[in-house]
Amino acid sequence: xxxxxxxxxxxxxxxxxxxxxxxxxxxxxxxxxxxxxxxxxx
Length: 42
What we know:
Blueprint: H1 2-5, H2 9-22, H3 28-37
């Protein structure tokens, strides 16, 4: 994913961690579930 949009893997990981934190989630699975619940992703 990172290469396809021209950013480093570290940047992607940092963005994911930031999103999880902002969603008050403890891991990626909980982050995705919370984003779905809030209608942020489909």
